[in-house]
Write a structure and sequence with these properties.
single chain; 448 residues; mainly alpha; Leucine-rich Repeat Variant
Length: 448
């Protein structure tokens, strides 16, 4: 004989209660009736089950749960608030009662109330004012939940922006992050918050700065003037954050390019790297700025800038002549990065493929290896380089032989010379070269 519903609720067998409801929705009414049960465990678990059901709990459940907000048992009050929040918009009538609990002495109740108001998402004056006041609560968890709730309410909570701006300086990083997120969600009139957000770029916590960057990027063009000013802040973290925001905005303007070009020469290597990343994020329009910067950059920055061009992808094809010249640089790190980048953007360029073929004879092992890898990425369009690749099958360095066999397998030119050359490496002294040669033969000889 199966247990009664009351017994299941008493024993907190929530899974079995929910299973019964799934089979028979009329069980919900029984659970609602048990909200008034005098036995605490049955009452508590009935409220919990209705919360787990969410909107499926139905309108009839709301009044009975609301009554529990006045219960003498603080845990019942808390569970009632939590369940009303889980039910969401349907529990709109609970807002006045929830507001009354906003000053409860029990911390977890205040937290549950903030969460519930946000989830119910009623943009009333009273609910918004309640959350604005809660931003000053003594407990950081309550303050954070209040900020989150204001963000969930959205544009109707625009009058709370002034308080959220203050909360950007809260001692708790969770509150500061939630406040920045709320400002971005509210959307309307967020321009008012720009000064506070700009100042928040100086926050010591990276999580806060990350949220602020996202928020400023969402605000858009109006963020640009103060961001440009912050590019010259004495603190490199602020400069980096401002640059990151400009990259997130992805706005192609000569003014931004001019300032980011200056930052490519910043005294901080990290800032210089961020500037290159930002230009990469902006994309095609930033290519002339990156190419120009290569003329005067030091070795490290040349590598970073060339990598940024590769990150832009095939749209960066106007940089191919510059990259071909970089293959002749004295520094091998520059030659390596130029080779990698040509493999990313030079698929449709005969000049790039020819230059890479020449680079297969580079004196540096790493350049030969990366050049073979790039030709493999280019694939069949690089078929004219087969003879040069075959010549490298006898390279002294196993990493070069490995990448050459891999490239031949991807270019897939099926000739006796290619197959014979690959077979000669099946018994190479390095296992990974053997495996790559064998795989290349399979790739070339398999039927289409």
């Amino acid at each position: 004989m199966s247990a009664s519903l009351e017994q299941l609720l008493r024993d907190a067998r929530i899974d079995l209660v929910l299973s019964r409801i799934e089979k028979d929705s009329s069980v919900i009414d029984e659970v609602i009736n048990n909200v008034e049960n005098e036995i605490r465990s049955i009452k508590f678990n009935s409220i919990y089950v209705l919360g787990e059901l969410g909107e499926k709990a139905g309108l009839n459940a709301i009044p009975k749960i609301v009554k529990c907000l006045d219960d003498n048992d603080w845990s019942i009050r808390r569970e009632a608030a939590r369940s009303l929040g889980k039910i969401g918009k349907l529990a709109e009538e609970a807002i006045p009662s929830l507001i009354k609990l906003a000053n409860d002495s029990e911390l977890t109740i205040r937290t549950a109330v903030m969460t519930a108001i946000g989830n119910i998402c009623t943009p009333s004056i009273d609910s918004i004012n309640c959350l604005r006041i809660a931003l000053k609560d003594e407990n950081e968890e309550v303050r954070a939940e209040a900020a989150d709730a204001l963000g969930l309410i959205g544009s109707d909570a625009f009058e709370a922006i002034s308080e959220l701006m203050i909360s950007l300086k809260d001692p708790s990083w969770t509150v500061r992050t939630a406040s920045a997120k709320a400002i971005s969600r509210i959307g309307r009139n967020t321009e008012r918050a720009i000064p506070a957000l700009i100042n928040a770029l100086e926050d010591d916590d990276w999580r806060v700065r990350s949220r602020v960057v996202n928020t400023l990027a969402q605000i858009g063009d109006n963020s640009i003037p103060p961001l440009l000013e912050k590019l010259y802040h004495k603190n490199k973290i602020v400069r980096k954050s401002a640059i990151e925001t400009l990259g997130e905005l992805k706005i192609a303007s000569n003014q931004i390019f001019q300032h980011l070009s200056i930052k490519l020469k910043d005294k901080s290597e990290e800032v210089r790297g961020k500037a290159a990343d930002a230009l990469r994020s902006i994309g095609k329009e930033a290519i002339p700025t990156l190419i120009k910067a290569l003329e005067t950059a030091n070795t490290k920055m040349k590598v970073v800038i060339i990598s940024a061009l590769g990150g832009i992808g095939e749209e960066a094809k106007e940089a191919i002549p510059t990259l071909i010249m970089a293959l002749d640089a004295k520094n091998k790190r520059i030659r390596v990065e130029a080779s990698r980048t040509l493999g990313q953007i030079g698929k449709e360029s005969k000049e790039a493929i020819l230059a890479l073929e020449r680079a297969l004879n580079d004196p540096a092992t790493i350049v030969r290896r990366e050049t073979a890898l790039s030709l493999g990425k280019i694939g069949p369009p690089a078929s004219n380089t087969i003879n040069s690749l075959l010549a490298l099958l006898g390279d002294k360095k196993p990493d070069v032989r490995w990448r050459v066999t891999e490239a031949l397998g991807k270019i897939r030119v099926n000739t006796p010379e290619v197959i014979s050359g690959l077979k000669s490496l099946i018994h190479d002294k390095c296992d990974y070269v053997c495996e790559s040669a064998d795989l290349a033969i399979d790739n070339i000889t398999e039927e289409n």
